[in-house]
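ARCHIVE CARD
SHELF: 3
SLOT: left
DATA:
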Amino acid sequence: MITSPMILSILLMSYIAFGCLALAMFSHYRDTFSTSPTTLQSRLFYWVGWLLLGSTLLLSINNIGVAYGSVVFVGAMAPAGLLIILTLSYKAKSLPVYMLLSFISMLAFLGISFF
């Protein structure tokens, strides 16, 4: 059964995943941290981002089913991507803080939805 905390945790996990994928790019990393990333950092952000997106898909499919889970997954990706675009456009230096707050909130919502 899907609950509102579950949808919020899927949205927040998508936000973190897109944030990692954005930080894997040279220009976004430089705008955020004012330094260029090493190859290891770039690859780490890239793979963590994709693993988080896959985990988000599995989480939504596991709780709802394949048909509705994939719809919820795609529906959560759209606002998460838009929020990353807006964050990088107006407050790029705040992206790591927002990602950390999203991670903490996601853990809280996952705890609420499973109990």
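SLOT: right
DATA:
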Amino acid sequence: MLIPHDTRIALDTVVDLMNTAAQGDRPDALADLQGLHVFVRAHKISDVGVLDAADLRAVREVREKFAAVFSAPEARIAAP
């Protein structure tokens, strides 16, 4: 199955977002605004204005929602 370039970039970004969460000895890479800036620059996310605490909260909330989907025991639970 071929995955279009834009789709691959989006999926890679989601995987990288999930990998920002604290795990074991690795701290949360999105613990502060500096971490969010690093993530945005590393992924060359365009049209980003001034980032603030609300943006950080929103990105962390999205990460939590993805985590819930990926950890759901069944597909119908992941996509209600």
